[in-house]
Amino acid sequence: MNKNELVTNISEKSGLTKKDVETVVNGVIDEITSALKGGEKVQFVGFGTFETRERSSRTGRNPQTGKEIQIPAATVPAFKAGNKLKEAVK
Question: What is the domain extent for residue 13?
Answer without folding.
Answer: 1-40
